Amino acid sequence: MSTAPSAGAAKKPSAWRAFAQPSAWTMFFFGFASGLPFLLVAGPLAYWLREGGIVSMTGDVVWRSDQRSLPVRVFGHVAYLPEAPFVFALVAGVPIYVFFAFRTGNNRYRLYFSEPIRVETAGKAERQAAITAAAQRYADLLDSALRAHPLEW
Which of 20, 104, 109, 128 is at 20 to 30 A from 7, Cα to Cα? Predict the structure, then answer.
């Protein structure tokens, strides 16, 4: 059995090329500021997303006390969400899709996928406002889901 690729097979691009992109260096600084390791948030994930891949991040848990977070309103109170997923979406130029699974019976679930949350801005001066607005849209979805399914959490 041969493991050599056929002559007509398309060559896969190297994920290491992603490290040469300016966005990788931007994520380098955002990543450390958000409390995430560079190799987790930099080039490989951005490259994966641009090639049509999917990355899942926890959007409602601040894992460390020194992790950058954003204040949002949930149930009329201030709560904090991690900043990293929203910054990553902005820098990578990809939308955020919120996913929930609600139990409907024994081994039965209803899946919910949101419309895309886009973190877009016309310039650097508007970045923080765009990131905060996206986080609040996520918080609004979370608020609605909690109200509709209070025993699911």
Answer: 20
In this structure, the chain runs to a length of 153
Give the strand pairing for 108-113 and 69-74.
Answer: unpaired
Q: Which residues contact 134 (CB under 8 A, 6 or more apart)?
A: 86, 89, 90, 96, 117, 118, 119
What is the per-residue pLDDT across 21-63, written as a single tens digit (0 to 9) for each?
555 555 444 444 445 554 455 566 677 677 777 776 777 778 7
**Whole-number Å distance between alpha carbons of 61 and 82:** 6
Contact partners, residue 45, CB within 8 Å, separation at least 6:
55, 88, 92
Say if residues 79 and 136 touch (Cβ distance below 8 Å): no
Instruction: Tell the residue number behind the tokens 């929203």, with chain if given.
Output: 86
For residue 134, the model assigns a pLDDT of 95
| 117 three-state secondary structure | strand
pTM: 0.68
Q: What are phi and psi of 2, to 5 degrees?
A: -95, 140
Cβ contacts of 96 within 8 Å, gap of 6 or more:
59, 85, 86, 89, 116, 117, 118, 119, 134, 138
Q: Which pLDDT value is given to residue 32? A: 44
